[in-house]
Amino acid sequence: MNEYNFLNLSSFEFENFSRDILQEKLDVFFESFTSGQDGGIDLRATINKDENIIVQAKRYTKYSDLKSTLKNELKSVQSLKPDRYIITTSVGLTPPNKAEILKLFHPFIKSTEDILGQTDLNNLLGLHPKIEEKYYKLWLTSTNILNRLINSTVYNQSKFELDEIKETLKVYVQNNSFKEALDIIKTNNYVIISGIPGIGKTTLSRMLVYRLLAKDFDDFVYVSDSINDAYSYYEDGKKQIFFFDDFLGRNFLETGLSVNEDSKLLKFIEKIRKSKNKIFILATREYILNQAKNSFESLNNPALELVKCTLDLSKYTKIIKAEILYNHLFFADVPKKHIQNLVKNKSYVKLIEHRSYNPRIIETFVQNQFWDDCEPEEFSKTILSFFDNPESVWLHAFENTISKGSQITLLILSTIGTPVLLEDLRIALNSFIIANVQKYPLKIDSIEFRKIIKELESTFISTKMDSYKKIAIEFQNPSIQDFLINYVKGKNELIEDLINSFSFVSQFFRIFTFDKSENEFNRRISLNNNLLEKYVDKIISDFTLFKSSYIYRANFANSNRFGWYKTDGFKYSFLIQILEELENSSNQKLYDFVIQEFQQSIEPEFEGYSERKSYIKLLKKLKKNEIIISSEKLIKDFAKKVNSIESLKDFSSLKELFSDEYEDFVSSPKFVNKIEEVVEYEIDSTEVNQYEQLIDELKELEKDFDYLLDAEINNLSEKHAELMDEIDRKMEKEDMDYSYEAQEYEEAMEREEQFISNLFDGLAEE
């Protein structure tokens, strides 16, 4: 039997729980009168038309508090004169405690059996498991389930933290989206959770993960940056849950998807859909999903719409909105006088019905404890101001709760983008201070820098240490980056100070653009002519001094270990980004500079994936501009760097640029041997469960080079078929339990306004 203390239920939830468990125990229907000044009645039932039963549900930690409250209730009970009076409480009661309460309410409490303490309620739950299943906050925080969650194999992120699970569950309000998402998973094995920023996509996804892990899944894989992570940790025969948060990437609007990421993603989704023991949960902001559909035809797929669970405020009833606000305030221990100010004149109604209602605003308000900075009589006005201007939540924290050094660090971080190595952030900060020493007379040594990071951590940023103790910085959530962009916008002097200090390539493109067109996807800052001139001069004068801050996360197979690594080289990537910016704006000076720099580096000097791609893009864009190229030498030099199927694909793109020279070269015995070596290496180094993807790549290779690989493909197909047959045999022996039953959240009650009013009246009385 589980031992719950019931304190992760709010007073309102505990009352509903008491109603449900007593209805099962007594087999009678109880009327609910919600929270608030109830006149001594929480629940009421009538038996045989003449026996009147009244119930009071009391959520307390200590017996002394319970006893004090019960004494105050005595007059009300004596006035009501029930035939039977029942008390439920979260307090653990001893026999003397029960005897004292029985004596206090004589003759209305007939026996100590009508005084149900913590132990009694747990005993009843053991007899009525359906009630336990309904109250997910209880069973998900039971010792058995928590141990299962915490001890689950979790790849690609930290182990689940006990406190984190408990805090998420406390404030979570289950709504129809939870059941909708589970139903989609039951049918398709995967679901896309979409919606506006702050609507609760990640929270819903986490709740789904907790639920599924509690239902006997083995592994949880957090997909951090690329679908390649999912492929790496995919294991046939294991019950696995994959979660790809922000799956189109926080940087999608600036840099797009990496090459073939869209096709790899769709292939993985199809792999999951056909599986019998895998679940895939994806979350994304709706506006980015729409932009991705415009950019990638493969993602504009009707099938993806069918598995999309869109979190929309229109799906949040007034009662759900009220409960979300109530739960956050209840568990945040907001001072009673502040709550009373909110309840007075029903100010909470303005919040619940506000056009900018958003769970993240409430969450941020509570996390930053803004009530510490306002008098009780100003509490309603203060919280309403955050709803009127959502970014004011971050503005208040930015301008009033952190030091000048922390403010500058955040502004610089917004230009670099995240994740970024801690050491690179410090380099950029030092560069800003040196470039603007007269304006910002700050001295930030290593000790002061550590203080800044500590001050920003948990509220604005998070830190992630890899297995080599290398630390990367990320924003806590995307809305902080959005706020910082809007904060910088229009502050031309500040923008100039930032530009003058740039030391990393990414700083030129993360939040600034040449494009002056207005559209919903253009969330960067358009530079005016004066700032653009400074920007161009900075690139040209310091081009050879800039460094790369781009990092990626590399995970070690079959372990939780990972490392932060920088991409190899960045010169070609820098030049192509400049050219792509120039597509929306003309600047001959910068254009000529790109041609000049590329001409000097025309011989392939790249190392790594992104530089190779960028080099090819530059060739395609600038070949017509009379760049002097020795095509034969270029093809030979490029071929020397071919060492994978991916690089062979890139090499094949030279065909459209230098068709004659290319055809002569690829038909040579030496290059044919190169293809054979690459194919042999790829087959030898690929795990069996990755054969399906490799087969597709080999088929594409056949088309690109008109080179038959029938024997290799057939061999791989046979091995893959054998593996799938073996898995099917195993799965037939297992009884896969897809028990995705989810409690339907109660429909909006009759007399909705009275319900909400009583709910918050009860909060003021706590």
TrEMBL record:
<dbReference type="GO" id="GO:0009307">
    <property type="term" value="P:DNA restriction-modification system"/>
</dbReference>
<keyword id="KW-0378">Hydrolase</keyword>
<feature type="coiled-coil region">
    <location>
        <begin position="681"/>
        <end position="733"/>
    </location>
</feature>
<dbReference type="InterPro" id="IPR027417">
    <property type="entry name" value="P-loop_NTPase"/>
</dbReference>
<dbReference type="InterPro" id="IPR011856">
    <property type="entry name" value="tRNA_endonuc-like_dom_sf"/>
</dbReference>
<dbReference type="InterPro" id="IPR049050">
    <property type="entry name" value="nSTAND3"/>
</dbReference>
<dbReference type="Pfam" id="PF04471">
    <property type="entry name" value="Mrr_cat"/>
</dbReference>
<feature type="domain" description="Novel STAND NTPase 3">
    <location>
        <begin position="172"/>
        <end position="330"/>
    </location>
</feature>
<keyword id="KW-0255">Endonuclease</keyword>
<dbReference type="Pfam" id="PF20720">
    <property type="entry name" value="nSTAND3"/>
</dbReference>
<dbReference type="GO" id="GO:0003677">
    <property type="term" value="F:DNA binding"/>
</dbReference>
<keyword id="KW-0540">Nuclease</keyword>
<keyword id="KW-0175">Coiled coil</keyword>
<dbReference type="GO" id="GO:0004519">
    <property type="term" value="F:endonuclease activity"/>
</dbReference>
<dbReference type="InterPro" id="IPR007560">
    <property type="entry name" value="Restrct_endonuc_IV_Mrr"/>
</dbReference>
<protein>
    <submittedName>
        <fullName>Restriction endonuclease</fullName>
    </submittedName>
</protein>
<feature type="domain" description="Restriction endonuclease type IV Mrr">
    <location>
        <begin position="8"/>
        <end position="99"/>
    </location>
</feature>
